[in-house]
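Audit log entry. Action: structure prediction of a protein-small molecule complex. Ligand: flavin mononucleotide. The ligand was supplied as SMILES and no pocket hint was given, so placement is left entirely to the predictor. Protonation state taken as written. Sequence taken verbatim from the request; no trimming, no tag removal. Recorded inputs:
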Amino acid sequence: MELKKLPQVPYGSLFFAPMEGITDEAFRKTILKLYPEWDYLATDFLRVPSAGKYPKKHIIRHFGLELFEMSWVLDRTMFQILTSHKAFTIEMVKQIEDLKFPWLDMNIGCPSNTVCKNQGGSFLLTNLVSLRTLVKTIREHFSGRFSCKIRIGYNHTENFEDSIKMLNDEGVELITVHARTRDDMYKLPARWSFIEKAVKISQVPIIGNGDIWSPSDLKNMLEQTGCHGVMVARGALKAPWIARCFKENNFKMNDPEIYHEIKHFLKNYRQHLEDENVTPRGLLKQSKSVTRFMLDGLGETNEIRRKLVLSQTVSEFYSIIDGL
Ligand SMILES: Cc1cc2nc3c(=O)[nH]c(=O)nc-3n(C[C@H](O)[C@H](O)[C@H](O)COP(=O)(O)O)c2cc1C
């Protein structure tokens, strides 16, 4: 039986980007609870194995055991996979279909050396003929919403338009364009003109991504590129509340309000990690990861940031946060 068809993503939708090591179950639960203004979220990528296959419970765990039971969350979350020609893509996609995940996203942007050496992620953009085969295979075996997240090229942008056309031809229903090549890595500024180009040639919605740090950036990307929606990664890690600020037309928050938000966010995040019985070591590591951009640009915070990074225990870390 075919999976249910999700309705078209509305214009102006805001996406919280997939981030490896960040957007796990506890993190997404915190975002869903505190910042429902994000219209859509994404899991970080699940690597398709090149030997054997994952048990279904491993796939569910990647999404989150509790979240998997909530159909409204399933409908709002891209389940992302990272694959290559060497991997067992069909087996994985069939399992995802059997589990009735309504939305599958393919990672065609990861820049990591290991991933590219294994011919996955952004490396796939070096050969559109073979990428087409992989995309076609996924489309044939997955009846839900199929989206792809791409960069504008690997080491040049000459194939960019062809990549957008190919994804359209192969039945991809939504394309996120991270406006950098693999060689650009995370270099500033992202090249939004490519998002505009994609919008002009694509029949399916284009979601723009790259360098959104404030509610004004969100507005500018929608206006300048004509994209259908915007995805935010590091800017959303720095300020998970920016979707709310954007929707409330609150274009500037003052420092005390930001400190209040940071504490509120971390209190909830810590609770979700504790509910999942994460070890103190894991709790400290995750708390450090998610706060790594939060204090950037806020007053004289160098010393506080240094103390947070060097903190050795959960109570030490959180007493610094409480003192903000
Ligand atoms: C820590 C981190 C982890 C990431 N993990 C993923 C991932 O699992 N899948 C993915 O498609 N992109 C991943 N990305 C890329 C982001 O989703 C996004 O495309 C990129 O950071 C550009 O957006 P930004 O300028 O808003 O940060 C990651 C980025 C960061 C900073």
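Audit: result stored. The radius of gyration is 20 Å. Residues 13-241 form a domain with the TIM Barrel fold (CATH 3.20.20.70).
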